[in-house]
Every structure is written in C-alpha cells, then in structure tokens.
C-alpha cells in the first residue's frame, strides 16, 4: 500500500511490482511534467551482499494517454542490464564508490531508454548508469554526488534518473490491515473500543525503507496532444498516466551448463495508476487479472468503484460515526463522485476553476491537468484542501493520498454530484494520522524529488 503488495502473484515478484506512481507539473521546471514510478518495494537498507536492483528481465514502462481512450499515446520504456566487474568476489564493492565508474564497485547496472509514440520507437539513450545502492558511510561516502552523476539531461529535452531512493509513501500499514484500525479513532472501533481507551499514535510502516525509482521529466509538448491552446478548461491540457512492468511469456531454467533463457512476447504482470486502486477497490479474486489488463478495460471493475467495499465497512467498523454514509450505502446508489475521481476525471463545473476529465472511457489513470501551475504553498490534502495542483490532479510526492482517499470513500466528495447529501462530520477528519513529516528522509526540492535512500550502516540507527 499504496501498491506495495497489492495482488497475490505480484507480491511474489517484487522486482516487477510497481509500488507508487507520481505525476505533477515540475515546480523546478514548470514547462515540464515529472513522472516517477517506484518498483522493488519494502527494501531493508542493510540488504547486502546482494543489494536491491532493477530486473534485467523486466520491461518497465511509463505510459501517457493524451486523448482519453485509456490507451498509451506516448510511452517511455526502461530496460536494464547488469555487469559484474570481478566474478571471483562475493562483495558488492571492495572499497569506497566515489564515482559511477569506480573500480571498487563490483555490480553495476545500466539502462536504455526508448520513447514510443505514433507507433514508432526512438532510442533516446543507451547504457546510462544507475547509482549504487546506499551501502553506508564507508562504501558510499558522497551519495548525493553519485546521484548527480546518474541524472542525465538528454538532447531530446527529457531529464532522467533511475536508481534507489527513500520510500516517500507514508501509511500506518500495520493498523489499517488489522481490521481497518485508524489509530486516531481506534477507541471508536467496534472491536478496538474494548481494548483502547484513547486515540493512538500512528506508525509509518514504510519509513526507513527504500525503493527503486524511475524518474523522468518531459517537456509538456512531448506529452500533450497538439492543440491551439492549453487552458485549464481545454481537454488537450489533461493527460492520463500509468506505469507497467512486463516479462516475456516463457522462461526456461538452465541446467549445469546452460543459463536461464526467456522467450516469447512480453506480457504485462504489474500496473499502477491511482494509488490504492488495486489495493483497496479491486477484490482479491480479480487483482491478478487487473494487473494484466490495460486501463481501457477498467469498465470491468466499475461496479467496485460505484459501491466500494470499504465504504460499507466504515459504518460497520465505527458504529454511529458514519450514519449518513450508512444510509447512502443502503440506497445502493452508484458513487458517481468516485467514478469521476478514479475512472473518468472530474468534469468541469463541479469544482471552481478545475477539471481533469478525459471523457467517457472508464480507465484507472493518474489524471493531470497540465495547465494548472505548481502550487506555491502545497496543501497535503490536494484538491480536497483547495490546492488544485495536488491529488487527485496527478500526484505529488508529499500528497497525503491515504487520507484523501479515505475521506472521499467516507462521503466527503458526494456533494460534488449530490448537493442534498451532507457528509458525516468524521468524513472530513478521518485519517491514519500521518503526513510527509513522518518520512525520515527529507524530500528534495528538485528532481528526482524523493529523498536520499537510507543506508544499511545507519538503519536502524545505532544506539548511543
């Protein structure tokens, strides 16, 4: 969660598991959009001697739909290769790694970047190096410099980075999946009221863990379709974004003399658009299927958005806290507010000065209105907090997507489509109780935005 272990099969394949996706107009380069896709979730920093890395046998892609059909018009494909410098050493490094070509670094990873648009593939870069994992102060003494060396500005206008970062997602994972406990409300929980006398302190379960990030800044004219103007109300300003990972269909395990081989076409094994969609909305029996499909097929899952299971659970888990939501649930009315937020975008006229609608095709994508400039004072609650540059208008690295999603499901957004509905008081306050301040690694103000990965030597911190 957001999508760290969201489906049974992909949970067994973390190298191909997309954990978070971000899309926002770049505050440090507002004529571009930043797209970040995280993979290999829940990394313990002290993961040697075989530290974490991208999969050489996985095809990673970030897709952009700019005409609202739920299919990719532009894709950026990342493919990785790994080289071992000293085949006779078991060590990741034999001394300090002070540059990307250091002879002390024994296992280096590179990638190629391809842009696919209008049915044509264009190789933008070949054998770009990733930085090493952040091992510790002796092995990677100047990690920020290695990241600088691994950040590339391409002649085609894109800026790109691929490598380890601190996980910026914050969630009280242990509490939420313990029968839906929200520690700030734990004393009101149907079972928790028997053992909790007061609210509890939330715990960021993903703090001090790392991920592997694919980050790319793309000029706006390379993601938007051609139009005469790009105003806030113009459909050409809105893009849909998702990420996917694919593997070849056949893998043959080698024997004593032959290496493993893969063959056949690539097939999608992981997908991510909106945070929490497959995690919370799609039922267990269909999660693996959802991961294999493109967004254009998401009408299959619309009924789970229209009447989400979590909306029914909240009144059951917290008796007398959500009476209005309970009555709404019993009417069996389709949640048109959630369909707009997750599947079609929010149409013009519901929120003053805002729309990110992409049309009638129901597709799970991060929808971003690129005509809305970055906020000078970002609000963690995004559009719900009056900040139109935040989730669900794309997603920034510090947006509190769990609280936003919980509040929407709890009924806070129903008045957008039904002005007669009055949300419960708790709907505007429900939260796991965490924010970006609960992420130990500071976020960066500039690309690639996610913080320096935690190193193994200092994680957990040594007691003094």
| Largest sheet: number of strands, sense, barrel closure | 7 strands, antiparallel
Number of domains: 1
Please provide the count of β strands.
12
- Mean pLDDT across all residues, rounded? 96
Q: In percent terms, what proportion of residues is strand?
A: 15-25%
Which consecutive residue ranges, at least 5 long each, have pLDDT under 50? none
What is Rg? 22 Å
Instruction: Supply the helix-strand structural class.
Output: alpha+beta
Head-to-tail CA distance between termini = 33 Å
Specify the number of helices.
9
Helical residues, percent? 10-25%
Write down the overall geometry: globular
Question: What is the N-to-C order of secondary-structure elements (H for helix, E for strand)?
Answer: EEEEEEHEEHEEEHHHHHHEH
Pfam families: DUF4331 (PF14224)
Organism: Micromonospora deserti
Protein name: DUF4331 domain-containing protein
InterPro entries: DUF4331
SSE blueprint:
Layout: E1 18-25, E2 32-43, E3 59-65, E4 74-84, E5 107-117, E6 120-129, H1 143-149, E7 152-153, E8 159-166, H2 173-176, E9 210-219, E10 238-252, E11 261-272, H3 277-281, H4 287-292, H5 302-306, H6 309-317, H7 323-331, H8 336-344, E12 366-369, H9 401-412
Antiparallel strand pairs: 1-2, 2-9, 3-4, 3-10, 4-5, 5-6, 7-8, 8-9, 10-11, 10-12
Helix pairs in contact: 6-7
Describe this structure in words.
This protein is of the alpha+beta class. The protein has one domain (10-171, 206-438). The chain has helices at 143-149, 173-176, 277-281, 287-292, 302-306, 309-317, 323-331, 336-344, 401-412, and strands at 18-25, 32-43, 59-65, 74-84, 107-117, 120-129, 152-153, 159-166, 210-219, 238-252, 261-272, 366-369. Strands 3, 4, 5, 6, 10, 11 and 12 form a seven-stranded antiparallel beta sheet that branches. A five-stranded antiparallel beta sheet has the order 1-2-9-8-7, covered by helices on one side. Strand 5 and strand 6 (120-129) form a beta hairpin. The radius of gyration is 22 Å and the shape is globular.
